[in-house]
């Protein structure tokens, strides 16, 4: 548990140091733009600038599933098949940065999924 917390803190710090813009993104809808902001504040440190993976796997496919399965992955750490994701995957039950303290809304989750759908 302590190891997981240290990894998350380490990569959160690295993510904050990364550029705010990802390489060559097509024009994004407002929902995808909001999702991009969530991704860059919370996910980029492990899943990479282009969602290609790094410390954590490529999650482009996560944008294609249902909201319910995506929500289960983000909040409970369970994959599409119901199996637990790696322990290093944060459970965002307390929210996304920068608005920690409450569970992410369905709109925030949909926005994040919308962004993932745009990544090629």
From TrEMBL:
Cross-referenced InterPro entries: Cyt_c-like_dom, Cyt_c-like_dom_sf
List the keywords (alphabetical): Heme, Iron, Metal-binding, Signal
* Record-annotated Cytochrome c domain positions: 30-120
Give the source's domain of life in one word: Bacteria
Cited Pfam families: Cytochrom_C
Question: Which range is the signal sequence, renumbered to this chain?
Answer: 1-17
GO molecular function per UniProt:
electron transfer activity; heme binding; metal ion binding
Gene3D superfamilies to which the protein is assigned, alphabetical: Cytochrome c-like domain (1.10.760.10)
Recorded protein name is: Cytochrome c
Organism this protein belongs to: Deinococcus cavernae
């Amino acid at each position: 548990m302590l190891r997981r917390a240290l990894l998350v803190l380490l990569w959160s710090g690295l993510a904050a140091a990364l550029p705010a813009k990802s390489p060559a993104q097509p024009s994004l809808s407002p929902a995808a733009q909001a999702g991009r902001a969530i991704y860059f504040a919370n996910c980029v440190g492990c899943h990479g600038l282009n969602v290609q993976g790094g410390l954590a796997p490529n999650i482009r496919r996560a944008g294609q599933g249902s909201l319910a399965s995506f929500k289960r992955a983000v909040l409970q750490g369970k994959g599409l098949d119901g199996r637990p994701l790696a322990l290093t995957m944060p459970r965002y039950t307390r929210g996304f940065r920068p608005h920690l303290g409450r569970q992410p809304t369905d709109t925030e989750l949909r926005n994040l999924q919308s962004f993932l759908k745009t990544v090629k």
